[in-house]
Predict the 3D structure of the following.
Amino acid sequence: ETGVTQTPRHLVMGMTNKKSLKCEQHLGHNAMYWYKQSAKKPLELMFVYNFKEQTENNSVPSRFSPECPNSSHLFLHLHTLQPEDSALYLCASSQDTGTGYNTEAFFGQGTRLTVV
Amino acid sequence: QKEVEQDPGPLSVPEGAIVSLNCTYSNSAFQYFMWYRQYSRKGPELLMYTYSSGNKEDGRFTAQVDKSSKYISLFIRDSQPSDSATYLCAMSADGGTSYGKLTFGQGTILTVHP
């Protein structure tokens, strides 16, 4: 069982719907990330949170809205999406100790999103 | 030009073969290099990690980094059907939070047939 859990595993939503993706990490990490994996394209970093603060938004459209209430939970709120937003959305976490020692990024299993 | 180039394959080899997977990159600031393995319907899992240039070996897997050529490789010896997966190269410029800020290649689909 992965230390990073994502729900739901699959989601089908209409373009006018509002939905949320949830990520929870049980590893005690302080940094969390959202990545998008589209067919035939590399994983793309979307957002970075460090100690609950957003430190990076990689030019993501505002129809994607992240939320990080604490270091263990990360959400991605979705509204008025387009069919081209259909993809696998992956959450990851890592530990930044600030002392030069870092851990690898651990990924969840992803949410397969289909926008119809 | 993509920052990281990786041949998507697919690559099909017989069991026992030596597999060579490669990526090239353009950003000279990259200094952390990783290989992730992704099975179907799963998230990526870290396979190998290398800092700067050099080789690293772990069992049947060897990772090589040549920063002068901006070229990284992953070799799999005695490949097994269980190695069938998508292999993703990933790179990062800094440590800290940047350790999770990865730039990925497209991934190479590998099938090892018995």
The mean pLDDT of chain A is 91. DSSP finds no helices and eleven strands in chain A.
